[in-house]
Write a structure and sequence with these properties.
The complex is a heterodimer of chains A (381) and B (918). Chain A is mostly helical and 381 residues long. Chain A is built from 15 helices and 2 strands. Chain A has a two-stranded antiparallel sheet with strand order 1-2. In chain A, strand 1 and strand 2 form a beta hairpin. In chain A, helix 3 packs antiparallel against helix 15, helix 6 packs parallel to helix 15 and helix 14 crosses helix 15. The N and C termini of chain A lie far apart (63 Å). Chain B has 918 residues and is an alpha+beta fold. The N terminus of chain B is likely disordered. The chains are: A mainly alpha (381), B alpha+beta (918). The interface between A and B is large, with 65 and 77 residues.
Chain lengths: 381, 918
């Protein structure tokens, strides 16, 4: 052992600072961490790119509000221009006219006669009612749920739809991504070809076809699952209800799985052949490490907004799937509101979905910049 | 990082699934559960407001009338039983009505006669599902809400516009507001004004007005001003005026709306100009047109301004040169001319204001002092008796019928759930949206309601019937679990898996399961028949080139076509539950409403088949014998059919009349149908085409064998289906060869139904064969049954027989009493008249059928399969009570036993249902 080594050992053998000293050291280091964080935080919000993004989001929000109002106006006017089913008033015209007045479609004149209310006046009344604070800003349902508010009706139909979509998403995202990765790794091998054919089949066939097929096989031939969804009486979060919606979940899932798998495979295949993957391997990473740490993460950039879009769309229901499995969800509600001409319900549900769609689009667009910092939102360069 | 993500994902799934396992399910302790379905979810089930049969579904279990019609002990008829009433209604002698009552209820009505005041004793054991007693106060307050003008309840008219009219009910309901009412009936015949004339007049061709009674002596609520304009214009020389009014009105209807919600929407879609608007479309979708719009124009629902247009002259196309803008003055002139012309000698005048008579106007139905419930003809006598004061007399039978419905609501809940709308009117959410918004009082109570999904109805343990000893063996089911299945295939598969206990059958389902012993049919009082055009001239004008249609004017030919149809085969192949039938009045029509005796089961009813078809089964069969009946009832004998067709062809071939059938012609029959793509219509068309083609080919062969037709000569035959959603109107004008005619009416009044055949002024008379000469077409009927025809009394026109049967004293049983039984005073006199009336009815039916212009095919019915789990009380369909209903339904299996049974059969019962025979 030479002298230098001894010095080193000595220094190592020096006694550690006592606890009070340690505290003092900690106190000295803490402010510096905060400072770093604060500096980074302030730096982020004052950076040019952030300002550009915030400005972009602000503009998009203004555009969103404007778009929403325009769509609302178009929707309102078109719905109100739908003809009144005149035969509904045949038995007692007086009752018919009074209902029309109650719905804001007609006006009773001072001489007792009734006449159609101009659409612009209907719009004005609607806006006044919206801000009147009378508890029913969106009016009443006259057909689907007698005199209930459209928001209550939508609320009562949301749970089954959201549940089915969440369950479906929890299955389709991991399975779809997993299959996509597997296919990309097995590119042009028999596994890839087989799965590609299956995926193309699933994508090509409309979801209601395999919905019927699943119902027939699982519910009536093998009799392992209920054919239709249970009612709310069993509790939406009961196992019995979950079991009853397995088939609609699967029906909703197949298409998504196929979509994710196909997309992931395409993105990952492209990334795997990139130059930086070769660099990663030459730096000594194993294939798995290179694939997971570099290739997959990069391939997620276009896939993530797709997932985000699906997360937002959990609130929307499928009219066809809900009809086949008798799910009392929003898809059926929307259809019913059109068929029964429940104007207020149709108006509310439409605007609800338009809002979701607009917000969803904004969030997805913004997410591109968050997922991949190279993408600068609102940058003019 | 990835591993963490996966862990998070798995944890998320696990947490959701564990959450999913937390909530329990609602178990059921029911032993007998009836599982059924609806295709449409009811919006509400408020008895004050219900409109569709779905909306009365829940109350059929949870409510019950003061009286109910139930299957009788012999299970072959019906009887009335008191339910919410303690006993049968008691007519109050007018002499017992106090002065105070007279002042309150009858001061403005005039004479008080028998059967206008009735006491209803109430069932003292009746309670709401929460155990609260139901007393007379509940009935009075419920009626007040029913008639409350602020609620404007849809069913209010049940108490002022039917058989049972409560004093002041209409006034109470309409007080304080002007409603659009017919001008006629409210105007002063001296001045022509209505009280407080608002100056607003409305034209509505599709709505009943008493004015039509001045023109048609048999008008009813389906008769409207359009009927007058459409039918009598040419008779009175005002055809142009009539057409102008119709076209102007049609123009408005055509332009104002696209009628997407209409039941005749497809008809509207095909309309290219207002002359194509049919009576059906006007009747369905009529609106009140403010006649000022004829001057000012109108705004359609798209916001476009337009003016009403009409035709300048008759028989011209809808082209610019032929149309003109209608004006208010022109309309008034046209109306004035029409009213003056058709009103001759029938009370209408030619005064200047006569044009107002067919119109409608704003009226205060009641303008006196504000009315209270004390003025309405329902009064509490004591806690358990109510008295009804009516504006017209009603028989006990009709009163009991009227009181099988109920108006009872839980008034405090009803009012608590009320909302005042922006218009100031009220609406309630009672009996809608949730089970908590409702209170039952019948054998069952509503336990759960989820709109669009499920309705659970369970036994109401507080119902009096489970303790009173009068309902032993009734209402066996504990629970009715109703699912909403909008998709028929899903419902069918659920039934086949044993999860539903009944399923309605479509035509294709019926082919698979129609022969099953579990198939039951609910019959309607409608007969589906073919109506031929038998008018030679009309047919001749319709045939072109080598086609021939005039052969249809040959009675032998038509009879042959009728005999060629195996109606049982037709019913099984082209319908979903109808049964082969050759009469006009099916088994549901009642000869005696008190006993429920079916007209078809009477000697007279049975004799009709033989009178029309003779002895189809051969000499050994007597026409009133049971075997003969079965043969004649279906009117099928192919050999005879060929003979008659050949006979008809032969006489037409030999005819020298212009346009007659000649060798080389093709008999080309246009078959007008409502929907040429409907499954059952196509099946019917195919069946008839094949049947008749075969029969005519055989008949032609017979003619050639007889050398009545040379071997080289041919006759073709073709039937083409033509879609015509207003084929009745087409038929009334004679512009047809053959239509499906489906006709029927109230099963309790078969006599009245003959109107459509016998009264040439009837607005909907569709039998063109009479060509409006029912009053001059004579028929011999042995009315007194002595075997001889008395030419003085028993040789009358169709119209006269019909009129005598339905009005006057000659055939009136009512003058001897209501519901008479053997041993009662006047029973023998009543029985004699009753038999005479039946003889006339049977004679008329046979007389119409023997013309072979109306060829019945089936008695209409819809079929369903009843699950093995349950059993109806009877296998024979009984008028008014069907197969006994839920009251008498029994269970073959408990819920557990049924589950085991289904499991043993692998939850797939389709083969069992298909092969099951009773």
């Amino acid at each position: 052992m030479n002298e230098n080594e001894n010095k080193t050992k000595k220094s190592l053998k020096q006694p550690l600072p006592d606890s009070s000293e340690q505290e003092a050291i900690k106190k000295e280091t803490k402010p510096s961490a905060w400072k770093k964080f604060w500096k980074a935080f302030v730096g982020f919000w004052t950076s040019k790119s952030t300002k550009e993004m915030l400005s972009y989001i602000g503009k998009r929000l203004i555009l969103l509000v404007f778009t929403f109002i325009v769509i609302f106006l178009i929707c309102f006017v078109l719905v109100r221009l739908l003809p009144v089913a005149v035969d509904s008033g045949m038995k007692d015209p007086e009752i018919f006219y009074r209902q029309m007045v109650a719905q804001g479609r007609y006006v009773q004149n001072s001489d007792g006669s009734y006449s159609p209310m101009p659409v612009l006046q209907q719009l004005w009344n609607f806006i006044l009612n919206l801000f009147s604070g009378n508890g029913k800003p969106w009016g009443f349902s006259y057909h689907i749920q007698w005199l209930s508010s459209p928001s209550d009706i939508l609320g009562s139909h949301l749970t089954p739809t959201v549940l089915i979509n969440i369950y479906s998403m929890l299955i389709s995202i991991p399975v779809g991504l997993g299959l996509g990765i597997f296919m990309a790794l097995k590119k042009n091998k028999w596994q890839d070809h087989t799965l590609s054919i299956v995926i193309m089949l699933v994508i090509s066939v409309p979801s209601f076809v395999y919905a019927f097929l699943l119902q027939y096989l699982f519910a009536y031939v093998w009799q392992v699952l209920p054919s239709t969804a249970e009612s709310a009486s069993v509790g939406y979060f009961s196992f019995k209800y979950f079991r009853s919606i397995i088939l609609p979940i699967l029906s909703m899932t197949f298409g998504s799985i196929a979509g994710y798998a196909r997309y992931t495979r395409a993105e990952l295949t492209e990334v795997l052949t990139s130059d930086f993957m070769l660099l990663a391997r030459t730096k000594g990473l194993t294939r798995a490490q290179a694939t997971v740490r570099h290739a997959f993460r990069n391939s997620l950039v276009p896939i993530f907004p797709m997932i985000l879009g699906e997360v937002i769309s959990v609130l929307s229901g499928s009219m066809i799937i809900e009809n086949i499995f008798q799910v009392n969800g929003v898809g059926g509600l929307y259809l019913q509101s059109i068929l029964t001409r429940d104007y207020d319900v149709f108006q509310f549900v439409s605007m609800f979905y338009i809002l979701i769609s607009l917000v969803g689009t904004l969030v997805v667009d913004v997410s591109y910049g968050i997922v991949d910092p190279r993408i600068r939102m609102g940058s003019k360069k | 990082m990835i591993r963490k993500s996966w862990k998070f994902g798995i944890a998320s799934i696990a947490s959701i699934l564990s959450l999913a396992g937390c909530s329990g399910s609602t178990g059921s302790s029911a032993t007998y559960t009836y599982n059924t379905y609806l295709a449409t979810s009811p919006n509400n089930w408020n008895v004050h407001n219900w409109q569709t049969s779905d909306e009365s579904y829940i109350t059929s279990f949870t409510e019950i009338g003061l009286y109910d019609v139930i299957l009788n002990a012999n299970k072959n008829g019906y009887e009335f039983v008191p339910e919410m009433a303690a006993d049968m209604p008691k007519a109050i002698d007018p002499a017992d009505i106090t002065d105070a009552e007279m002042d309150t209820y009858y001061s403005s009505i005039g004479n008080l006669t028998d059967n206008m005041v009735w006491d209803i004793p109430l069932n003292q054991a009746a309670v709401w599902e929460d155990g609260t007693k139901i007393t007379a106060d509940d009935y009075i307050k419920s009626m007040e809400l029913q008639l409350d003008p602020d609620y404007a309840n849809y069913r209010a008219d049940s108490y002022y516009d039917g058989n049972m009219i409560l004093v002041n009910a209409e006034n109470f309901y309409k007080q304080g507001r002007q409603t659009i009412e017919p001008y006629y009936g409210n105007f002063d015949s001296n001045t022509g004004n209505v009280p407080n004339d608002s100056g607003f007049y409305f034209l509505n061709l599709g709505k009943y007005t008493p004015y039509v009674n001045t023109v048609f002596n048999n008008a009813d609520e389906t008769t409207n001003f359009y009927s007058i304009l459409n039918q009598v214009g040419s008779t009175y020389g005002v055809q142009l005026e009539c057409e102008r009014i119709i076209v102007g009105y049609s123009y408005y209807l055509w332009k104002i709306s696209d009628h997407k919600g209409s039941s005749v929407a497809s008809s509207w879609e095909s309309v290219k100009d207002p002359t194509q608007v049919s009576s059906t479309m006007i009747s369905n979708d009529a609106v009140d047109i403010d006649i000022e719009d004829f001057d000012t124009g109108f705004t359609d629902f798209q916001g476009f301004q337009d003016t009403i247009k009409t035709i300048k002259a008759l028989n011209i196309g809808w082209e610019d040169n032929n149309i003109e803008e209608y004006s208010l003055d022109a309309l008034k002139n046209d109306l004035r001319k029409v009213v003056s012309a058709v009103g001759r000698n029938k009370g209408a005048t030619s005064k200047n204001w006569a044009w107002k008579l067919p119109l409608f106007t704003y009226l205060y139905t009641y303008e006196g002092e504000p009315l209270t419930m004390d003025d309405v003809g329902i009064k509490k006598i004591n806690d358990y008796t109510i008295r009804l004061y009516l504006t017209k007399a009603i028989t006990e039978l009709n009163l009991k019928f009227a009181l099988t419905g109920n108006w009872l609501v839980k008034t405090d809940l009803y009012e608590r759930l009320s909302t005042t709308l922006a218009t100031g009117s009220k609406a309630t959410t009672y009996a809608s949206n949730s089970a908590s918004n409702y209170m039952s009082y019948g054998p069952y109570r509503l336990s759960y309601f989820e709109a669009g999904k499920q309705i659970i109805i369970v036994r109401n343990e507080n119902w009096y019937g489970y303790k009173d000893g009068k309902h032993e063996g009734q209402f066996q089911m504990d629970e009715i679990d109703t699912h909403i299945y909008t998709d028929h295939t899903t419902a069918l598969q659920e039934f086949m898996a044993g999860r539903l206990d009944d399923i309605d059958l479509t035509v294709s389902d019926f082919r698979n399961y129609g022969t099953s012993g579990r198939c039951t049919t609910t019959y309607e009082s409608y007969t589906q028949k073919i109506s031929f055009n038998s008018d030679y001239e009309k047919l001749k004008s319709r045939q072109q080139g080598n086609d021939n249609k005039t052969i249809l004017s040959n009675k032998d030919f038509r009879k042959g076509l009728s005999l060629a149809i195996d109606r049982n085969q037709f019913a099984s192949q082209a319908t979903s539950g109808s049964k082969g039938f050759t009469g006009l009045l099916n088994d549901l029509y009642l000869a005696n409403n008190s006993t429920g005796e079916s007209y078809r089961s009477t000697v007279q009813g049975k004799s009709v088949y033989g009178k029309v078809y003779g002895h189809l089964g051969g000499e050994k069969i007597d026409e009133v014998d049971g075997d003969a009946l079965e043969e004649n009832k279906v009117g099928y004998n192919n050999a005879l059919a060929i003979q008659y067709i050949a006979q008809g062809l032969e006489s037409e071939l030999k005819s020298s009349v212009a346009g007659h059938l000649t060798a080389g012609n093709t008999i080309n029959i246009e078959f007008r149908v409502y929907d040429d793509s409907a499954e059952n219509t196509v099946a019917a068309y195919n069946f008839i085409t094949k049947t008749w083609s075969d029969a005519i080919t055989s008949a032609i062969g017979l003619l050639k064998d007889r050398n009545d037709l040379n071997d080289s000569e041919t006759l073709g035959f073709k039937i083409s289906m033509v879609k015509d959603q207003d084929y009745y109107t087409t038929a009334q004008n004679g512009g047809y060869d053959m239509i499906f005619s489906i006709w029927g009416g109230a099963a309790v009044n078969p006599y009245g139904l003959m109107e459509v055949y016998c009264d040439n002024t009837h607005t909907s008379c569709c039998e063109y064969g009479f060509k409006g000469h029912q009053a001059e077409t004579y028929l011999d009927i042995d009315a007194n049954g002595d075997g001889n025809i008395d030419v003085t009394n028993e040789h009358r026109s169709f119209h006269d027989w019909y009129t005598a049967m339905n009005s006057g004293d000659e055939f009136s049983e009512a003058i001897y009493g209501d519901g008479l039984q053997p041993g009662d005073d006047n029973y023998e006199a009543w029985y004699e008249v009753h038999n005479k009336k039946l003889n006339v009815l049977a004679g008329l039916e046979a007389g119409i059928l023997s013309r072979f212009e109306a060829v019945p095919l089936v008695a209409r019915g819809t079929s369903s399969l009843l699950g093995f789990k349950v059993e109806n009380a009877t296998d024979t369909y009984v008028s008014l009570v069907g197969y006994g209903g839920i009251r008498f339904m029994t269970f073959n299996y408990t819920n557990e036993q049924w589950s085991s049974f289904c499991a043993e059969n692998n939850n797939s019962l389709s083969n069992l249902y298909r092969s099951y025979q009773r």
